[in-house]
Amino acid sequence: MTETKLYIIRHGKTMFNTIGRTQGWSDTPLTNEGELVIQQLGAGLKAVPFKEAYSSDSGRAMQTARIILQEHTEGEKIPYRTDKRIREWCFGSLDGGYDGELWGVVPRILAFNNYEEMMSKTITYRELANAIIEADTADWAEPYEKIRERVWSGFEDMAHQREKDGGGNVMAVSHGLTISFLLSLIDETLPMQMELENGSVTTLIYKNGTFTIDKINDLHYIEDGKKELTHRNLL
Q: Which domain of life is it from (predicted)?
């Protein structure tokens, strides 16, 4: 049986990413720069033989997946579907606000002076989720257990099904905090991966119900793609 490997990609840079607004379940499209980087990523990934591709149902994730598949050698043949379980966390009333609002109030709820102090300490994702619920005045933010169930089942289901079908590579476009959270479920000793780059690739190996982390925040596919596109434009 072929090894089962997930290529989990953070979506491209969006309008809200650029101006420092919290997206969560709100959405904005990729900027021109964001599209270019994802085109480079797609060129860098074009030789990876994907058996199938997924993204969350957020527009920015779907846009990212489609650009990558347009660049892929077999893009038109790769089955692609969306899965709402691999969405970003919902920040409730703080969705769409400036990052300073979310990361101003949440650290204070957790008894820290600011975001930098909070990140220098060890906090759990459960504590983070509870603080977001407390900060949310609309009562929309998800409880920790609900986030855990949907994120884990979303990625585990796609890996399990691929293993059952003979293994191979799966592409999945998701979101920064969701990917970081998934990594913590695999290895609870990891620090919070809050600085995952747009277009970065995190790879996981799946075998007999167990994930192993291969690489986190890998940017080399983008760099490879830059060379590929430069070479293509020179021809």
A: Bacteria
- Please tell me the predicted confidence (pLDDT) of residue 175: 98
Q: Helix, strand, or coil here: 112?
A: coil
The whole-angstrom distance between residue 125's C-alpha and the CA centroid of its chain comes to 16
Query: Which pLDDT score is estimated for 194?
Result: 82
pLDDT recorded at residue 73: 87
For 127, the token pair is 């504590």
107 alpha carbon, distance to own chain's centre = 23
Q: What is the pLDDT of residues 15-25, one digit of tens each?
A: 999 999 999 99
Task: Give the H or E element holding residue 105.
Answer: helix 99-109
- What are the domain boundaries of the chain? 4-90+145-234, 92-141
pLDDT < 70 regions, the chain: 234-235
pLDDT, residue 13, reads 98
Strand 168-174 relative to strand 50-55: parallel, antiparallel, unpaired? parallel
Alpha carbons within 13 A on the beta-carbon side of 34: 20
Helix 176-186 and helix 144-164: axis angle, to 10°? 80
Q: What is the CATH number that goes with domain 4-90+145-234?
A: 3.40.50.1240
Contact 7, 45 (CB under 8 A): yes
**Close Cβ partners of 110 (under 8 Å, ≥ 6 residues apart):** 118, 123, 127, 128, 131
How high does pLDDT run on average in the chain? Answer: 96
